[in-house]
Amino acid sequence: MDTLKKIALFLVFLAVQTLVLNHVHLFGFIIPLLHVYFVVLFQRNYPHWALLLWAFALGLGVDIFSNTPGVGAASLTLTALLQPYLLSLFVSQDAAEDLQPSVKTLGMVKYVYFVSILTTLFVLTYFTLEFFSFVNWMWWLATVVGSTVLTVVLIIVIENVRRK
Q1: Confidence (pTM)
Q2: Beta-carbon neighbour count of residue 126 at 10 Å?
């Protein structure tokens, strides 16, 4: 992805998350956190410092418009920190250096695993920081599982639409 495309995607994810998805609360506790898809899209061997900077900026932008001070920035930055290492588990060593994770490049099963692990890490961190308590751990667990499943399903749907 070139810089202009990244800026456009950054703005789209920021707008969609803050203006639309933050207001969706299925069953009162499931929130789609689609902006993690921005981190998933980064190609192999992208400079780590730049990936962390992009993720922090998007997380901070979502935090500013969602009134969640630091939660999104910390969660998305941690996800971006782990993305290259997780991607290397699903990509062979002889694959292209600029490989971008997608259903086409990884295959459906590997891609779903990759997205599921990254999304789970992000959502787990996000809601752990947001709740900051395990007093009502069943509510926390339901929120984490529900939001993870909904976000992964949305990412797979968008990826399949992109592919065609």
Answers
A1: 0.91
A2: 27
Q: Give the tens place of pLDDT for each residue, 60-70.
A: 999 999 888 89
pLDDT beyond 80 at 129? yes
For 37, residues 6+ apart whose C-beta sits below 8 A from its C-beta are: 13, 154, 155, 158
Q: How far is the C-alpha of 23 from the C-alpha of 20, rounded, in Å?
A: 6
Please, what is the Cα angle at 148 between 38 and 41, to 5 degrees?
20
- Rounded to an integer, what distance in angstroms lies between the CA atom of residue 125 and that of residue 135? 17
- Cβ neighbourhood burial of 162 (10 Å; 0-12, 13-18, 19+): exposed
Phi, psi angles (nearest 5°) of residue 6: -65, -40
- Give the C-alpha separation, 123 to 115, whole Å: 12
Classified as helix, coil or strand, 30 is: strand
Quote the percentage of the chain above a pLDDT of 90. Answer: 65
